[in-house]
Amino acid sequence: MKLPAGLRAGRIALALALLAVTVTGAYSQRKKGEDQNARSVQGVVEDPQGKLVEGAVVQLKNTKSLQVRSFITQKEGNYYFHGLNPDVEYELKAEFKELSSPVRRLSVFDSRRNAVINLKLAPSQ
Fold first, then answer.
1. Helix, strand or coil for residue 124?
2. What are the CA-CA distances from residue 104 to residues 4, 48, 58, 60 (Å)?
3. pTM for the model
């Protein structure tokens, strides 16, 4: 049985619309899943006397790709990195004038989605 041209065109348009919705929904779910798997790290930077430091440079190093991201601490001495891969280990370090913090690690074995790692500055050696 052959369908009239108008009905055939309507069915094709409906099929294409359903396909577009399905593809968009699948992409949206995958994007949500990726965001749910990502993790973040935040904290504060303190000077040797325990005061919060504004303007310190915090560096986050991906130990797999060696990519380094930087954040300049805000008025409250805080920093924040997001969108981190849970399968990668990261190194954190802060510097301010002639002070620097020891390197701290965010391990792949650390299962926290929102890790908090505070950094304490000391005179550079």
1. coil
2. 71, 17, 11, 10
3. 0.70
Among residues 100, 92, 90, the alpha carbon closest in space to that of 120 is found at 100
Q: Just give the CATH number of 39-123.
A: 2.60.40.1120
Measured CA to CA, the distance from residue 91 to residue 81 in angstroms comes to: 12
What is the domain partition of the chain in residue ranges?
1-37, 39-123
Are 91 and 108 contacting, i.e. CB atoms less than 8 angstroms apart? Answer: no
Q: What is the pLDDT of residues 69-90, one digit of tens each?
A: 999 999 999 999 999 999 999 9
Judged by DSSP in three states, 74 sits in coil
Q: How far is CA 84 from CA 44, 61, 100, in A?
A: 18, 11, 23
Three-state secondary-structure class, residue 111: coil
Evaluate whether 80 touches 40 at the Cβ level (below 8 Å): yes
What are the tokens at 47?
């000077």
CA dist., res. 48 & res. 46, Å (int): 7
